[in-house]
Amino acid sequence: MSLRHAVLGLLADRTASGYDLMKLFDSSLANVWPATQSQVYGELGKLAGAGLLEVAAEGPRGRKEYAITESGLAELRSWLIDTRPDRTRRSETLLRVFFLGVLSRVEAITYLSLEADRAAAEHEELEGLEASVDWGDDQISVYGRLALAYGLRLTAMQQEWAEWARGQVAARLPAD
Amino acid sequence: MSLRHAVLGLLADRTASGYDLMKLFDSSLANVWPATQSQVYGELGKLAGAGLLEVAAEGPRGRKEYAITESGLAELRSWLIDTRPDRTRRSETLLRVFFLGVLSRVEAITYLSLEADRAAAEHEELEGLEASVDWGDDQISVYGRLALAYGLRLTAMQQEWAEWARGQVAARLPAD
DNA sequence: CTCTGACATGTCGAGAGTGGAAGGTCAAGG
DNA sequence: CCTTGACCTTCCACTCTCGACATGTCAGAG
């Protein structure tokens, strides 16, 4: 049920069309809550039907500019304050770690090395993002920066862990 | 498509029934790849139909003991070696951070404090798990320990981040 | 002997997410 | 004038996940 709140949250900042929203999902929210076109447009329709959004203006090419309503804002606030986030995490990377035993030691070490490289690359990418984005003082910028800092810490931790884990596996006597 | 490989991976270690598998999902894999009964039994059926698993024995109460086949093992190995993990991550916690601007400063700080507490609690829980599990030398134990170490590092990082973020928000002049 | 609790498998429907196809408008450049 | 590319929305078919429900067996306690 988070997609609906992601849409509400983006529209709390400024009005936008489905097309605009897609760009926001692909840039700022890409690493946090990805969404496809079909999802976004579908959700806009439902939200408007439920009165949480309204069509503020219609532009050329059938463009519909959506704006959040009072009850939409209330719903967003209540989601933020009254409900606890769902934290079911699925990590395919970690799932694979459980089964590394079916591989040879060398193959397992390779897997962990690749994971360390990937984390390092992602870390650099986020650093690039941090440098390139021009951070304003609007809500999304201020708090988006906090989210980016999380990503930086996460990828750094992942790299350290993968290197440590590789060492752990390598240290076991080659008694496979 | 990871559920199928999770099942194959568990059965690579030892044979098991759907019921046994559920217990493994609820204990070892709970934090990495949760699954429900209906999913597990459904997947077992499909996997057996595809020849990646076979019913090794039938026990009382209709119990079916599944074992991985040669082609199942090949599929598992190829998944581990030839394919890169899907790393689409969704974090409702982080999504909320983006929208903290619609709340008052105090409410935002409360949110981040709760998040720090939650991470700390989860960290302790994992430490308890580490102490209570009796770690053998089997594959799942050896590599499961690496996964647990990841969880420990993750929750520690989350707590630090949340406390830092709370400080960041608090430091801004109360000009809301 | 009967009750209870662990063992054990299965079906169904609703909702979320994925990927792509289809259809149409407008502005600007060649 | 005509093509191209950006703009913009809608629909569909599919898989995955969740939670509840249905069905039944077996061992041990009382």
UniProtKB/TrEMBL annotation, chains A, B:
Where in this chain does the record put each Transcription regulator PadR C-terminal domain?
90-167
* Pfam families to which the protein is assigned, alphabetical: PadR, Vir_act_alpha_C
Gene3D superfamilies membership: Winged helix-like DNA-binding domain superfamily/Winged helix DNA-binding domain (1.10.10.10)
SUPFAM superfamilies in the record: Winged helix' DNA-binding domain (SSF46785)
Q: Where is the Transcription regulator PadR N-terminal domain?
A: 7-77
| InterPro entries documented for this protein | Tscrpt_reg_PadR_C, Tscrpt_reg_PadR_N, WH-like_DNA-bd_sf, WH_DNA-bd_sf
Do you know which PANTHER family this protein is assigned to?
A: TRANSCRIPTION REGULATOR, PADR-LIKE FAMILY, TRANSCRIPTIONAL REGULATOR YQJI
Q: What is this protein called?
A: PadR family transcriptional regulator
Species annotation = Actinacidiphila epipremni
